[in-house]
Each structure stands twice: as C-alpha cells, then as structure tokens.
Specification:
Largest sheet: 7 strands, mixed
Radius of gyration: 25 Å
Number of strands: 14
Shape: elongated
Strand content: 15-25%
Structural class: alpha+beta
Order of helices and strands: EEEHEEEHHHEHEEHEEEHHEEH
Number of helices: 9
Length: about 375
C-alpha cells in the first residue's frame, strides 16, 4: 500500500523509491542509522555489537547483535535489496554460532562496541553495569542468559521463497521475523522510511503461504524452569504468612528473585533462588557511601544476625549487596522445599530485624 500526504484538498501519494536510487548503502547508511535507533525494529532491544565476528572465520559478521529484556540474544541481518536474498540461511548460521555466548562474553563484546561509538576506552565494569541495568538484574544470572537466540531480518522487501522459509521455521519454534524497510521520497527531496513488521503479522495476508503462521511457544526447558520457580515462590509466600509481612503483598513470580521494601528509597530486601542454592540479601542501589557505613558495623551486624554475611562490592556495578547464602533451590526435590523455604524465611526475619533500623538510621 502506498503512503499518502494529506493536503488541504486531496490525498497525494508519496513516491516510492529504493535504497539504490537514494545511494544508501547497507553498512554505511542503513545499519548506521538503525544502530542508533534500534527501537525502530523492535521495542526493548539493546545493541551489544556491530559487525560481530568473534569466531574463527572472521569474514562472517553479524550486522547487529542485540539483547532483549528477557536476556535473549537477537541477530539482526540487513539487506537493501528487494527480495532479501538468502538472508534467512545466513542468519540461522550466525544464530547457531553465537548461541553459546556467556554473560562475560557479552560484556566483552559490548565493551568494544562502546569504544567504537565514542565512549572512551575499554571499560568492562561500565559495560557490565549497563547490561545489568538494561536487564534490571542486580547481578548476572547465567542460567537465564542467552537461553534463546532470536532473528530479525530487515530488508526492502522479501521474496515468497524467503517468507515461506520463515513461516516454516517459526512453526518449528525458531523465533525469526521479517521487518520491511521501504523508502519514500517527498517532493522537497526528503526521504522517509516506512518500517513494518510483516511476519508474524496476521493482517499481512499477501505474505502468508499455505503453511500458515503460528505463534512460537516457549522452549520446553524455559517453561519448566519458570513453572518450578513460580511454585517455589508460591510455597514460600504461603509459609511466610503470619511470620513475616515484608513480602506479604507480593505474588509468585517466574524470576530468580523476590524483592521487598525495607522502608528507604534505594534499598531493597529480597529472596533469591537458583537451581540448588538460595540467599536472602540487602540490595543497595548506587550508594557506595551507605554501603561503606554499614560495612563499618560488619562485626556487630553479623554477631546480631548470627552468621557471617557476604559483602559484595564489584567495581563499576551500580549496586552493592549484603547477602546470606544457603543450600537448596528450586531444582531441589520438591519434598525438600518446605524445609528450604522455612530456613529462607528464618534468615529473612533475622536480616530484616538487624538491617532495617540501621538502614533507616543512615537517612536521619
């Protein structure tokens, strides 16, 4: 469908053009512009690297490697041609090659990307902090990082063969989508770009084939993990009723942590569970002075709490933690959950009793 300019007495079609006609190149223009405005392709993306090639065959490069808010990697492949070529096959190869990326490797890649975009010299601490802030994670959760790799194909148009392949792949639980980048030229010489996601998009019937498009289901292991966490928190919250009220208004979640207020902005008191261990902890957001003042009372705090605590201060990270780790997590035998949850609740009660008055005193 053409784009129309609304004039006082008519709707005037805007002339379609092409990237070739406008002398816009894939890498020097389209990729550069999208890199700085990645939300044009999809909300909730963070660019980790441009021209990523951290593998033996450095001639193969991912145009843009991104991260989404669910900690999935997103491979973005760009083409300015009108049929997309064989970009789906290329993107699948890249997705497979990058799928084993760890959190630390993502930090390394993003550190280099920051330098390439004028943010000083290599700074792994700053890169790590920005990724954690984007994910809203207090600390890295390796179990949840890069559990899936998604693909976005962005092109001036797509052939029927390519869209058929994409729909077939989506039916087989590969999260791959097509975004059309269509340029238009106004009479005054300005160029517009119409950016539309075509697949998955039920209204785009011209791009559908007999196979049909289906919504991608979550990976089986992710569903299982999220279900286990939800049931674990459901049991803990139920057992905490009448014993501790800080998390009384919280609902079960699929996340690895369950946070609550300790009465002072910038501080939280939380539970965390991993596969076979757990912790209760105080999280201090971007306030080193407060952490240092509490650390001065370390001996008294641990004596009153009844056990040593872990005082975590990683250079460059926006927050700091004071935690008490224990054995037992959401993948422990469910028959063991009540005992694990009771020990977590007991530790939470003690941590709250010891830390709340001290944290509130910092603000007086």
């Amino acid at each position: 469908m053409p784009i129309y300019e609304v004039r006082q007495d008519s709707l005037t079609p805007v002339s379609a053009t092409s990237f070739e006609t406008e002398r816009l190149s894939e890498r020097g223009d389209i990729q550069r512009l999208l890199k700085d405005r990645i939300e044009c392709l999809e909300d909730g993306l963070m660019v980790l690297a441009e021209e990523f090639s951290d593998w033996q065959d450095s001639s193969r490069r991912i145009d843009l490697l991104c991260l989404d808010t669910d900690a999935n990697l997103v491979v973005v492949e760009l083409k300015r041609t009108n049929d997309g070529g064989h970009m789906e096959l290329q993107a699948l190869r890249y997705a497979a090659m990058v799928s084993a990326m760890t959190f630390d490797q993502a930090v390394e890649a993003y550190s280099r990307f920051r330098v390439q975009n004028g943010k000083g010299t290599i700074d792994h601490d700053a890169a790590r902090s920005e990724i954690l802030a984007f994910l809203n994670w207090p600390e890295p959760v390796e179990d949840d990082f890069a559990k899936d790799t998604r693909i976005i194909l962005a092109s001036a148009d797509f052939s029927k063969e390519l869209t058929t392949s994409v729909i077939w792949l989506r039916e087989r639980q590969i999260d791959i989508r097509c975004v059309r980048l269509k340029p238009y030229r106004l009479e005054d010489g300005r160029v517009l770009m119409d950016i539309q996601q075509l697949i998955p998009l039920p209204e785009a019937t011209e791009f559908q084939t007999q196979i049909g498009a289906k919504r991608q289901a979550e990976r089986k292991d992710r569903v299982e993990r999220h279900d286990l966490r939800y049931r674990f928190w459901e049991g803990l919250l139920s057992r905490a009723k009448g014993r501790h009220s800080v998390h009384a208004n919280r609902s079960p979640t699929k996340d690895t942590w369950l946070s609550g207020s300790i009465g002072v902005a910038g501080f939280s008191i939380s539970y965390a569970t991993r596969q076979y261990n757990n912790s209760v902890y105080i999280w201090i957001a971007n306030d080193k002075a407060a952490f240092d003042k509490l650390a001065e009372q370390k001996d008294a705090i641990e004596a009153e709490f009844g056990s040593p605590l872990e005082w975590t201060e990683t250079q460059g990270v926006l927050g700091r933690g004071i935690s008490f780790p224990q054995d037992g997590g959401y993948r422990s035998d469910p028959t063991e959950w009540p005992g694990i949850q009771d020990r977590m609740i007991d530790a939470m009660i003690r941590l709250d009793r010891v830390m709340r008055p001290r944290i509130q005193a910092l603000r007086k």
